[in-house]
Amino acid sequence: MGQSFSKAGSKAGAQIPSGKLYQAASDRYYEIENGNMSRYQNGPAGHRVNETTKSIDFIVGSGNHARTFLHRNSDGSLLELPVSWYSEQGGTLGMSPGYDRADHDDFRRRIPEDCLFCHNAYPRKDNALPEGIACQRCHGPASDHKSLVNPAKLSRDRQLDVCEQCHLEPTSSAPPTVVRRPERKPYSYKPGQTLTDYAVFFEAGIGDRFEVAHQAYRLRKSACFIKSQMTCTTCHDPHRAQPVSHFIDVCKSCHTAAHRTEEKKQDCLGCHMWKRRTDDAPHVIMTDHYIQRRKPASFTSGTVTERVPYFANENPGPQSYQHGIDASKAGHYAEAIRFFEQAIRENDNPEESRREIGAALMLSGNLPASIEQNEKLPNDPIALTNLGNAYLQSGRIDDSKRVLAKASDEPNANNLLGLACLKSGDDADAESAFRKALNLQPDLAEANNNLGTLLASRHEYSEAAWYFGKAVASNPNNPEFRHSYGLALALTREYRKARAELEEALRLAPNSAEIRSDLDDVRRSVH
């Protein structure tokens, strides 16, 4: 645990590896060299585009399974970097957990305090980022020795709470299944307290899905756990590593008659607690703590199907914010606004709820009310992005440009800024804004399409086609993107590819006379 978090290059930390990785799903190249991580794509004519570099400042993980790299921003906040080091196959680079798909967060995943809670020691006044989980995680703050806790003297439930503060996560998939109660601050849980007074745990109905933080979650399914008074320390000594023989002895302390006639069967773990590849971190293999009599013939990775309290009789606390998110995703904006207003009254994610009200008002077409709401959040970059969008839709171009410039690290803000610049005739500034949006988020479909349109207006059709192709790759069901891509391909005389794109565009928008006419023209060119 003391090696769970370290400064990159420090004496306690591991050396930063060097290497290269190409992720086909996102068509991006990553390089680690001289303590930095870079990303780029091979753009039109083979030259690099969307290139950026971040320093590797901290390392999460001991290296037994993996090490993930973090970058520290100038404001002190942390970003998770998209490539990690994994111990399997003697050590290899791979995409970080959650990044093994095309639409990942790249260099934009911020690390909140609730994540650091389980990966590092409690922050101190003289050191906001100490290195490694320390004694107080299990024994309480050392500032008052009289209040130190010996977990062995706690009740079974409170002992389990000490371990389960970090090793009981039903799933890392959205929506979150471990939610800190709104009245509690990060790091305010102390050993000996009831964990569910600090956070709410939700069952997710994920079937046999297996994840990195599933030790207690899977153990609680086991008959050995249900029918006994065992805790985590029945098998584990948190202060030192133990050999396999120790765990076998623990099994035999209860199962005295098991395999007495088969003396060669000594490895209980191999048959009853096998190692599995985790579903949330595909490059990691860990012990499944669900103790079973027989190994299933196969494992099925489930998906989230429900969200109900995990512990019986647990008060889940206010749920208005999550209900609002669900209603907004379903397009029920008036209902979402009512939930968010209730969430504010309940102190359930109040700042996020205010931001979501502004977004829901805009999506429902009430631009004046959206502007009024978002203007109340001058320091929230997402609210500023939404405000700039509302100004843009209202024809307030200068106000839009002024506000969007303040959210310069938001990809969508830069894309909208590009559109605002086009409205005012600033094509060069528009191109710069679109390219910055794509540097921040290479798969932002709208920015790829907008940059392609701008390039096509200058008759730079080959380069335009590349960006239109990226827009289609990110959003293949958008007929406008398909149409633009098909036209650009036709203008570069790639008629067969153009026909395929326009046929798909017409399938998506069968009533579009413009797409049908352009498709007829291309078909004649093919023949």
State the helicity in percent bands. 25-40%
Low-confidence stretches: none
Shape: globular
Number of separate helices = 20
Average pLDDT taken over every residue: 93
Radius of gyration: 27 Å
| Total beta strand runs | 15
Structural class determined from secondary elements: alpha+beta
Oligomer: single chain
What's the structural blueprint in terms of helices and strands?
Elements: E1 5-7, E2 19-23, E3 28-33, E4 36-42, E5 48-55, E6 58-60, E7 66-72, E8 78-86, E9 92-95, E10 109-110, H1 113-116, H2 136-139, H3 156-167, E11 178-180, E12 199-203, H4 215-219, H5 223-226, H6 244-254, H7 268-272, E13 275-277, E14 285-287, E15 308-309, H8 320-329, H9 333-345, H10 350-363, H11 367-374, H12 381-393, H13 397-404, H14 411-423, H15 427-440, H16 445-457, H17 461-474, H18 479-491, H19 495-508, H20 513-526
Antiparallel strand pairs: 1-6, 2-3, 3-4, 4-5, 6-7, 7-8, 8-9, 8-10, 11-12, 12-15, 13-14
Helix pairs in contact: 8-9, 8-10, 9-10, 10-11, 10-12, 11-12, 12-13, 12-14, 13-14, 14-15, 15-16, 16-17, 17-18, 18-19, 19-20
